[in-house]
Amino acid sequence: MSPAQGSDKGRKVLVIGLDCAEPTLVFERWRDDLPTLRHLMNQGAYGLLRSSHPPITVPAWSCMFSSKDPGQLGFYGFRNRADTSYERMRIATNLAVDVDRVWDVLNRSGRRSILVSVPQTYPVKPLNGVCISCFLTPPGGARWCWPESLKGDLAALLDGQEYMFDVHNFRTENKGWLLEQIYEMAAQHFKVIQHLMDTQPWDLFMFVDMGVDRIHHGFWAYMDPRHPRYEAGNPFEGAIHDYYVYVDQELGRLLDRLDDDTVVLVVSDHGAKALQGGFCINEWLKQQGLLVLKDQPPGLVPLEKCEVDWERTKVWGSGGYYARVFFNVQGREPHGVIPAEEYETFREEMIRRFEATTDHQGNLLGTVALKPQELYREVRNIPPDLIVYFGNLDWRSVGSLGFDAIHTFENDTGPDDANHAQDGLIILYDPRQDLGGQRLSGLQLECVAPTILRLMNVDVPSSMEAQPITV
Fold this sequence. Notes:
By secondary structure, this protein is an alpha/beta fold. The protein is built from 13 helices and 22 strands.
């Protein structure tokens, strides 16, 4: 696909981001129930979009829009080591992104961008256009809107209601409340998006719906018979399906506003699947004699609240959808115990240990342990020593201590039904071309940024190494 069919300025582009949208649900299971997305697929081209390592919101969306991998970006999740001490961590906000994303390139070419809820846009930075920041916006955060004057317009549009950046405390057992909050957030966001489409000029319009992610984590067990806690006929069995249908209807209203000069991209940063359980990484490291505590408070506590004997500890890990594993290395950490010259030998040994982990019934989990230096073109800042997917992302990493077991079916950060899957989705639709439902293959999310720029007839910077999509 080439911008040559439009003017020298190229085409306008609408990017519809559906955080965590699972391709098997859109392409197969619920395709007939999603007329808007089905039309885009039937007339356009679509396929799987391989996510980053790790496949999580941060860093995936920034990888997508910068055409950089996490190592080049220098952050490997929401929280990253600030230095080689044992305590200091830093949240990867917009301030952590020091490379161009697609709207930065468009700024320099005089193109106008509108961004709504795009992850890692808080705190907002000035741009040629409009930006309303993302779920990383803290309570009371001030720099969430560009231009600042838009805050008053939004307050009037929403009848004084507070703008919802996220469903806070979405890990809850109160599922009725959670469902209401997800719909309330989505209704607000689509109202704002429609308003901006109707009142603001733009060349690139990009938004991300976080409701898909939140409803997956909150309700996957109610929908998927493969989930260990699924019960047929439960009252929330249709919750995820119905939300997809609702989003599809809202997308139809947006597409009705477009002319044939606008190319549409629908993308998700990763997929989703049933969470089978939790692997208590620090409990396991304790049993292996690799993590030694001086004191552990009673009850369930994060590692940060335990007194670690660092002079006898070799490894510690973090919780999350994947595990970040850190080694205590001589000359690097303050009380390092692993000789630097034995680092690679020890890392290979740890990979073998992780690959040998089993589930609660003694079966091999199929755990995957990866070296950042072998994943990325460059490794900046302080990466984990290993990135570990327990059960190849069927199990999450549980970092807290106090479970008195290696395997758990309770989450230390609140109820959570889904883990992330490595493949997201992409749909490319040009109203001037019938692509006949062509299936795309071999795509990775870093191809999205150069594809947008090529469609808009803007030179792709040499720093973006991925190739644009061709159909």
